[in-house]
Amino acid sequence: MREFVFTIEYEKGVDEVMDLFIENPELHGQTTAVHATSEAMWRLNHITGPKEVLDEFDDLLDRITFCRETTGMCGSPVVEWDYEILASAPNDRVVYTCQKEGGGVRSIPHVAAKHIGDGLLMQAERRGNQYQWRLLVDDEDTVGAIYDEVRNGLCDGLSITVQRLSDPECLTDNGLDDDDLPPEQQAALEAAVEYGYYETPRRNSLQSIADAINVPTSTLQYRITRAEAWLATEFVSNSLSARPEDQRDADDVPVEA
User: Fold this and answer.
1) Residues of the chain with pLDDT under 50
2) Which three-class secondary structure string do you get for the chain?
3) pLDDT at 62
4) Contact 84, 95 (CB under 8 A)
5) C-alpha–C-alpha distance, residues 156 and 159, integer Å
6) What strands, in cross-sheet order, belong to the sheet with 130-137?
7) What is the per-residue pLDDT for 187?
8) Which residues contact 127 (CB under 8 A, 6 or more apart)?
9) Under 8 Å CB-to-CB from 5, ≥6 apart: which residues?
């Protein structure tokens, strides 16, 4: 099996929801489960971002009428569309969706299901102007057929590329981003340090720092929280890997009172 990454890129103004991702780089959408047949698709979406952006995302859900928003392509009318927000927190949502699409060229999951049949495995991710679909496929001819059908159905303002990865990653990924901090999170940390947020006593509050760098307080809070989580994960990972094996074993032995 090989992993193929289908990437749809959006121009600004093509779709209202993707515009929200384009305008807010910290907004991130990941499909944690997706099931598709030639007739319908069910999925769980995990959306993270600043509170005010997620509130706007909630408002847009009721206005979805075209499949290009939810699946990354053609703009055919959705015959049936249902959704439910299963979990909601200030900085994340878990959203269940079920949809049936109309005639014409359909979404990547529908096209893939038609060509692959039973056993289709895939994941999806949205960030910025890109909507990526990762599929496990064992036949490159099938990938070519999926690509051609999707490409021929794209509306104006969308483009598609496909990439083959040497090893399948989408089902072995632990969900942690091993890359460096995103630029906006790095900038948030740098501002927090510069304005004395981590000093004792604290020299400036998040609100005053947000005012100084001209971003909403909730956005700054989100970026710093995400950056701190990344730093903590990196620190613990590096700390554990640096400890001698015998010392780790000794530390893990419970001490009787």
Assistant:
1) 70-72, 174-178, 248, 253, 257
2) CEEEEEEEEECCCCCHHHHHHHHCCCCEEEEEEEEECCCEEEEEEEEECCHHHHHHHHHHHCCCCEHHHHHCCCCCEEEEEEEEEEEEECCEEEEEEEEEECCCCCCHHHHHHHHHCCCCCEEEEEECCEEEEEEEECCHHHHHHHHHHHHHHCCCCEEEEEEEECCCCCCCCCCCCCCCCCHHHHHHHHHHHHCCCCCCCCCCCHHHHHHHHCCCHHHHHHHHHHHHHHHHHHHHHHHHHHCCHHHHHHHHCCCCC
3) 77
4) yes
5) 8
6) 78-89, 92-101, 40-48, 28-36, 122-127, 130-137, 2-10, 158-165
7) 87
8) 21, 25, 27, 28, 29
9) 132, 133, 134, 162, 163, 164, 165
On the 0-12 / 13-18 / 19+ scale of CB atoms within 10 A, 101 is buried
Counting every residue written for the chain, the total comes to 257
Closest C-alpha among 127, 122, 129, 173 to residue 143? 122
Domain map (residue ranges) of the chain: 2-165, 183-242
Cα distance between residue 37 and residue 209, in whole Å? 50
Give the tens place of pLDDT for each residue, 92-145.
899 998 877 666 556 788 888 888 887 788 888 998 999 988 888 888 889 999
Instruction: Round to whole Å and give the CA distance between 145 and 142.
Output: 5
Write phi, then psi, for 199 (nearest 5 degrees). -80, 160
Angle of the 183-194 helix axis to the 217-242 helix axis, nearest 10: 100
